[in-house]
Amino acid sequence: MHQDEHQAMTDAPIACSLTTPALRAREHVLKREIFVGIQEMRELPDGYALRFPGDGA
């Protein structure tokens, strides 16, 4: 990455226009979509290991 590209990326503000109720609703949908496919969950000393099915590719 060139210096000017890096500078342009860091100048862009990060913002979210979702309201708190919209954020909660989106979080609920994403959690349901992500966690429904978990085949195995193991607790690790520093977090969790999740196993998902392969895509057959």
Concise synopsis of the structure shown:
With 57 residues, this protein is α+β, with helices and mostly antiparallel strands. It has helices spanning 3-11, 20-35, and strands spanning 40-44, 47-51. A hairpin with a 2-residue loop joins β1 and β2 (47-51).
Task: Please characterize this protein's 3D structure.
With 57 residues, this protein is of the alpha+beta class. The protein has one domain. The chain is built from two helices and two strands. The protein has helices spanning 3-11, 20-35, and strands at 40-44, 47-51. A two-stranded antiparallel sheet has the order 1-2. The chain starts with a helix and ends in a 6-residue tail after the last strand. The model has no long low-confidence stretch (mean pLDDT 82).
Order of the strands making up the biggest sheet? 1-2
Structural class by secondary-structure content = alpha+beta
Main sheet record = 2 strands, antiparallel
Oligomer: single chain
Number of strands: 2
What's the structural domain tally? 1
Helix content: 40-55%
- DSSP helical segment count: 2
- Taking all Cα atoms into account, the compactness measure Rg is 18 Å
Assess the beta-strand content as a share of residues. 15-25%
Average pLDDT, rounded to a whole number, is: 82
* Topology pattern, helix = H, strand = E: HHEE
Please specify the SSE layout and strand pairing.
Layout: H1 3-11, H2 20-35, E1 40-44, E2 47-51
Antiparallel strand pairs: 1-2
Features:
extended, 57 residues, two-stranded antiparallel ribbon
